[in-house]
Amino acid sequence: MNLKQLSELLGLSQTTVSRALNGYPEVNEATRERVLQAVKETGYRPNKAAQRLATGKAGSIGLVMPTAPGHQSDVHFGEFLAGLGEEAVRHDFHFVIMPADPDDEVAALRRLAISGNVDALFVAYMRGHDPRLAMLKSLSMPYVVHGRSFGSEPDYPYLDIDNEGAFYDATRLLLQLGHTRFALMNGPMHLDFAIRRKNGVISALAERGLALDEGCMSHALMTDEQGLLAMEHFLQLPERPTAILCSSTVLALGAIRAVNQAGLRLGEDISLIAHDDVLPLLKPESFSVPLTTTRSSLRAAGVRIAQRLIGTVKQAGPFPDQELWKTELIVRASTGPVPQA
Amino acid sequence: MNLKQLSELLGLSQTTVSRALNGYPEVNEATRERVLQAVKETGYRPNKAAQRLATGKAGSIGLVMPTAPGHQSDVHFGEFLAGLGEEAVRHDFHFVIMPADPDDEVAALRRLAISGNVDALFVAYMRGHDPRLAMLKSLSMPYVVHGRSFGSEPDYPYLDIDNEGAFYDATRLLLQLGHTRFALMNGPMHLDFAIRRKNGVISALAERGLALDEGCMSHALMTDEQGLLAMEHFLQLPERPTAILCSSTVLALGAIRAVNQAGLRLGEDISLIAHDDVLPLLKPESFSVPLTTTRSSLRAAGVRIAQRLIGTVKQAGPFPDQELWKTELIVRASTGPVPQA
DNA sequence: TACATAATTGAAAGCGCTTTGGATGCCACT
DNA sequence: AGTGGCATCCAAAGCGCTTTCAATTATGTA
Questions:
Q1: Is residue A122 within a helix (H) or strand (E), and if so which, with residue range?
Q2: Residue B50, CB, strand D, below 7 Å
Q3: Which of B48, B158, B195, B323 is close enough to B145 for a disulfide, judged by CB 3.0 to 4.6 Å?
Q4: Tell me, in Å, how far CA of B19 is from C1' of D20?
């Protein structure tokens, strides 16, 4: 069933039926009723590809999903998607997801953009000096970046959390508790949030005349194994750190396993603060020793970005171009005063 | 840059350029080279919407993502998606994800199908007597179901794991260890896998003349909280079960927390077997007491389903319509002989 | 040399929708 | 009666691609 058939059925022109369907004013209310009725009976749905071709819009947000054989799936990605979806469903938008090798993201994003399949783009996993920014700017398609790109002029639409502030505050808390030996368990070095979090730690330490030793910094994928490995490494250092900052509760999961295996007590021998993306699976309060965290909901960010993206496509009012969300610092049992030596 | 412009640039007809691009044989090799060269230089990409409209194919797989405010995101979904993506990226396919309220899945699936945006459908979260099957059959669009629908004629293309066999085997193992008081911590009652797993347990018990008490069965969303609650309930029963079967490592996570909180020892006071979807975040061997599991990789299932779907769309050879994967039973430390009373 | 055959290329007709630029009829108003 | 304005409706022209059908040229054969 297509427009033509439907209009023949009704004895109307395609024009009128189309207008009736799309809420144009120049169609008789009685006629519109008749059309709507027929739609219900026949179950007619406009062909989106045709609509897209004719209008240039198709109610969809495009995004690139990094994937590859052996590339571990990322809970953060799923959680963010849930947020996007929650908002999208309200506006009858859908997503077009282009899976791409992590090394091929720029090209994949470009393919997606010029495929004509999407109205707007969402971009994540930002890096320092991210090459995608220049490409996006040249595209004349709305987009919102999740995160920022360290080293690039912040003149693009983004939503980010204050990573530097979060880790600055967390470090200050640990300093106040008397800790002096710190370690940072971070995400991959090239990612923007990792850079900023590191800076936050470093500047808080610097205020006390402390520095973060190279050996007390790990950059790795945010998996629990990597957390385990990194922590094992830290624990073997001659000057074992007593305060750990951790970029994700996923990393913390492994890190804590290492602490337990070493027979140490979290919150006493070792204090740890992790960043909490509010993943349903990893509630900091559910850890055997509840975790002190810097918190910001990834899902809420997804909802907000979807709002902005969809709003822009629908030309529904202006949105702020840049948003920086503060994180909360929530103290639980994984942090305590520095142990007396 | 579109086909018309490109062909004018080359002094060729759109026909020839189109054929050159799509690998048709009736075009001079020299001409093809010239076209390919021009594509490289101009960065031309065909408009997918137009391609779709003209051919009816667009290289995309559609799926419905259940979501709603407050609806917790599902790690299983993300992991499966990673599998789909891994295969899709090899064939330059993408996904169209339609977010939908969990109560609205049938309608959402239909909308997706007739939107003309997708070539094939993937369907998951199957229920007993699933109403989507009839709809899918009427659709004349390829689809593959992940799971099955208990109570419906199995005459549709599916990939499922042997849920009944898995839980039958797991139960047998526990029986051999002398356990007689069982509890089953299951997924939502209406879901197909939950039905079959329950049946597996019941039939293994029946062979020994045992039955599964109503109070020893929980049906809930597969979250760690629910696991905690269910286990707390089980532990308060007058005849406390000693053997627990658990539909997911996510549930097990909470369940084990409850066991620990009750001061009981896993693998001694309580034996537990969980089904392991091979989620990167929840490795059974990484639990403080490594988990005995029935194992089947969700991601591998995703890869396989994408293969079948894409293969069908591309008309690349016949695929088996029905696949039933056996699970592995892997014994670790969370199971032990029944404690002597 | 003449003619069948194969190799290349093009013109034009869609795919299903939106939208521009009229038509048409009806009314009030002068 | 003549005119302008309004409410409705429609024919047809795209959107950018594929594909059918036909034309043209090159090649081979008798």
A1: strand A120-123
A2: yes
A3: B158
A4: 13
Chain B residue nearest residue A260, CA to CA: B288
- What was the pLDDT predicted at B314? 86
Residue B341's pLDDT is what? 67
Mean pLDDT, to the nearest integer, of B131-140? 92
Domain A60-161+299-325: which CATH number of 3.40.50.2300, 3.40.50.2000, 3.40.190.10, 3.30.565.10:
3.40.50.2300
pLDDT tens per residue, range A213-225? 999 999 999 998 9
Question: Taking the C-alpha atoms of A171, A172, A174 and A179 in order, what is their torsion angle to the nearest 10 degrees?
Answer: 100
B198-248 confidence digits (pLDDT tens): 999 999 999 999 999 999 999 999 998 999 999 999 999 999 999 999 999
At A99-147, the pLDDT tens digits run: 999 889 999 999 899 888 899 999 999 999 999 999 999 988 999 999 9
Nearest CA distance, B53 vs chain A (angstrom)? 6
d(CA A120, CA A314): 11
- CATH class of this structure's domain B3-46: mainly alpha
Indicate the burial class of B159 (C-beta count within 10 angstroms; 0-12, 13-18, 19 or more): buried
Q: Of all nucleotides in the shown strands, which has a C1' nearest the CA of A53?
A: D15
The per-residue pLDDT of chain B, averaged, comes to 94
State which residue of chain A sits closest to B69, comparing Cα positions.
Answer: A86
Chain A environment of B86 (Cβ under 8 Å) = 67-69, 71, 99
CA distance A274 to chain B (A): 17
Q: Which helix (H) or strand (E) holds A96?
A: strand A94-100
Interval B74-97 mean pLDDT: 92
